[in-house]
Every structure is written in C-alpha cells, then in structure tokens.
Amino acid sequence: MAEIKTIGVVGSGTMGAGIVQLIVQSGFTALLFDIDKDTVDRASDSIKSRLDRIAEKKKASIEEIEQAKKRLCTTTDLQEFFKCQLVIEAVPEKLEIKRAIFQQLEKICSRETILATNTSSLSITQISGLIQDPERVAGFHFFNPAPIMPLVEVIKGLKTSINTVDTLVGFAKKLNKSPVICKDTPGFIVNRVARPFYNEALRIMNDQVASVEQIDRIMKNAGNFKMGPFELQDLIGIDVNFATTQSVFSSFHGEGRFRPHYYQERMVQSGSLGRKTGGGFYSNEV
Question: Which of 183, 204, 222 finishes a domain?
C-alpha cells in the first residue's frame, strides 16, 4: 500500500470535522467532503477557529497553525478522492448510507487506497459486503472529541487484510493516538462496555432514585469519570448515543442488558439532542 499523505474524510459533522482537525495538526493533508457547499464551508471555518484557539493558548505556534490550515481542503465532489491513500467515512450511523458511499469510493479510488469507517457499532463485514475488495476495508473508530481523546479502535472485518490493519495502526500512532485492534463484534470494545454506563443511568433517573445532576456528580466524584453519563450524552449527541444502543441491542438479538430506554428515544423524538441543538439533559451553559 502507498504511503499515506492525503486523507479524505466523508462527512463534515462533529466527528468528521474533529478527525480533519487532527489530521492537519499532525502534518497530513485532509480533503473534507460533504454534499452541500455551505455545510462543508461552515465545518472548515469551525476547524480553523479551533486551530486559532490552539495558537492563542500557545499550544502551537502561529506558523504551525497557519501551515495546518493550508493542509485543509474541502470539496463537494467525491471524485476528488482519487488522490487519497486513505479515506475515512464519518457519516450518520445508517448502514445503507455507508454501504452506498463505499461502493462509490471503490469506483473512484485506487485499489491501493484503504477505505475506513468511523462507525461506532455497525458491522465492518456488513458495510464492506458489496464491494470487490473487502480486504482494504476496516473500522477506524475515533472518540469525541477526536483531536483530544487518545484511543482509536482499529476493527478487523472478516475479510480485512492484516496489511490494512497494520497500516491503520501505524497511521494512528503518527496521529499520536493509542490504537487498539479488535474484532468485528457488536459495539466493538468501548461501546459495548459503555452501554450499561448510559442505560443504568437512564433507569435510575427514570425511577426517580436520583436526578440527572446527582447521577453525574456521583459518577465523577466517586467513580472518577471526567464526565457523567448525561453530560457525555449531551456532548456526543443523544441521537447518536441512542442509535448506537439500538445497533448493539439488535446485533445481540435482543439481549436484555443492551435494551434501549424509551426516555432516550423521547429525547430524540423531541429534537433535544444535546449541545448541537441548544441543549439535551442540560442547557448549553453547562
């Protein structure tokens, strides 16, 4: 496989933008795609603003930040991804959308290009099931916020090659991340572990044993978590968290311990998705 120099990122939402920021900060060229020019331009402006704040805090020089900005490119034409040695898909957790994107990428990119998905819970094997070279498809799961969180899950589908996995592990280390290789199982490692963290908190809240604020405070003070389960849902997006729970529950064929909570579903239905919508369990002032 070719040396990774230019990385395409499909999707300019919270995760896609965070991954692009990380890439350009680490000395690589990033090509950020979204279907709407205004959307991708807003994401680009947001990334550059966050880079400026890094310089203001003197965590990097002004020159370093300006060079990082120059490595940030945007496009609304997926055909431009022909120049990429690695593509990371970071679109919503919908299997049919991801599979369609990978089918398009297969026609555009070189056969040497690694196609990675940032999915948090969907099957890598299933996502890659319709393309001719599933050996070059793997999971490459960052955590929010991507520039800060150290862990990256590298997920091997049933047909993912060892070369693909090794290349992604090496690239993650170049981003100063801590990669961990895992099998293509529901929820992988972190999201499987995390389901009780969220689900039990929702049950305790709904049973009126403790309030949202009390549960978060206890988990931080007694459990030494940096954020409580409700604060973290607001940061990630309640819709994203709920979709992951649904996926894990379905993938385990309805195993009770992974069952989604109806209150979280009601939050999604109401449009109260967390920080990105002005508030969820907390207002944005929290």
Answer: 183
Rounded to whole angstroms, how far apart are CA atoms 184 and 160? Answer: 10
d(CA 214, CA 261): 19
Q: What is the pTM of this model?
A: 0.89
The answer to whether residue 224 is catalytic is no
> Catalytic residue at 161?
no
Last residue of a domain, one of 139, 166, 183: 183
Residue 286: pLDDT band with limits 50, 70, 90: very low
How is residue 253 written in tokens? 């064929």
Is 187 among the annotated ligand-binding positions?
no
49 is in an annotated binding site: no
Q: Is 64 a catalytic residue?
A: no
What is residue 153's DSSP assignment? E
On whether both 204 and 100 belong to a single domain, the answer is no
Express each pLDDT in 200-241 by its tens digit. 999 999 999 999 999 999 999 999 999 999 999 999 899 989
261 is an active site residue: no
Query: CA 259, 261, 266, 267 torsion: positive or negative?
Result: negative
What confidence tens digit (pLDDT) does each residue in 134-177 have? Answer: 999 999 999 988 999 999 999 999 999 999 999 999 999 999 99
